TrEMBL record:
Keywords: Ribonucleoprotein, Ribosomal protein, RNA-binding, rRNA-binding. This is Small ribosomal subunit protein bS6. Binds together with bS18 to 16S ribosomal RNA. Belongs to the bacterial ribosomal protein bS6 family. The keyword rRNA-binding applies.
Length: 150
């Protein structure tokens, strides 16, 4: 049997419990055809880069699957039929990752540097870059019009 990572996007107006029910439904399809589902991660409701079927957000879910190709084809066929599933992608992998996926390892908002300047480093010094010298140029209001300058 081959190893797969499968991600699907569910409509924004379904609840988290309905997404869990979808995961269980597709898990049952895989297991009934001789496969196993390992790690299942629900990444939650996230904004989409562009609209998909009039949805601006979607529920993301990841499944690590060890199953024959026929089980994957049947699960994808059922996903095409289901109106709650916007997109899906299945990728064959050499080995499943241990621990949480990259999406679950993202830093919390509290760990990010603050934007009000408290966590910023010192301002950069541009002392090594030469500045333009304007010499004895008169103030801007006293300069002649452009066509008078030569």
């Amino acid at each position: 049997m081959a190893l797969y990572e499968h991600v699907f996007l569910a409509r924004q107006d379904v609840s988290a419990q309905q997404v869990d029910a979808l995961v269980e439904q597709y898990k049952g399809v895989i297991e009934s055809l001789g496969g196993k589902v390992g790690r299942v991660e629900n990444w939650g409701l996230k904004s989409l880069t562009y609209r998909i079927k009039k949805n601006r957000k979607a529920h993301y879910a990841l499944m690590d699957i060890d199953a024959p190709a026929a089980a994957i084809h049947e699960m994808e066929r059922q996903m095409r039929i289901n109106e709650d599933v916007l997109r899906y992608m299945t990728i064959a992998v050499e080995a499943h990752e241990e621990g949480p996926s990259a999406m679950m390892q993202k830093r919390d908002r509290d760990d990010r540097p603050r934007r009000d300047g408290d966590d910023r480093g010192p301002r950069r010094d541009f002392g090594d870059r030469p500045r333009r010298d304007f010499g004895d140029r008169p103030p801007r209001g006293d300069r002649p019009a452009r066509e008078d300058r030569a």
